Amino acid sequence: LNMENEPIYPNCDSADNDFQMEDMSDESGAPRDANVDPDPETAVQGWIHWFCALEGHEYMVEVDEDYIRDPFNLYGLQGNFPSMTKDKFKHLLRMILSPQSPNEEDLADEQFLELNQEASDLYGLIHARYINTAYGMAKIYQ
Q1: What is the CATH code of the structural domain delimited by 44-141?
Q2: What is the pTM of this model?
Q3: HEC string of the chain?
C-alpha cells in the first residue's frame, strides 16, 4: 500500500503530498501560524485541535507541531505498530499535522476511519511523551 502521493484525507485535495520525515523541522524560521485566520469563528482548525476537542479527550493537550516534527521525539514509536510501513507512518504524521480537520464525508469513509484510529493511537503515544516535557506540563497546568 503506497500512501506517498495520497491526500491526507481521501475526500480532500492537498498540495502537501510531498511531506517527508526529513521535512519535519522548519528551517525557514517563519512562524507556522502566519496564515491562520485570527477570527475563531471562521478559522479552520487542524486535526490536532479537532482530536483534542472530541468528547472524552478533555485531558488531552494540543502537542506543539514543532515537537511532532522533530524526529528525535518520534524515535521508536513506529515499533509500537509492528505491521506499519515507513510510508504509512509518514502518512499518519501528515494526517496529525494537517491544518484541516476531517469533514462528514471523511468520517463516513471506512478507510479513513481505520487510518484515523491509527493516527489517534500514534497521537496518544506522542502525547504521552510530550506531557513529560516542561512545555507539556505547562500546558497541562493551564
Answers
A1: 1.10.1820.10
A2: 0.72
A3: CCCCCCCCCCCCCCCCCCCCHHHHCCCCCCCCCCCCCCCCCCCCCCHHHHHHHCCCCCCCCCCCHHHHHCHHHHCCHHHHCCCCCHHHHHHHHHHHHCCCCCCHHHHCCHHHHHHHHHHHHHHHHHHHHHCCCHHHHHHHHC
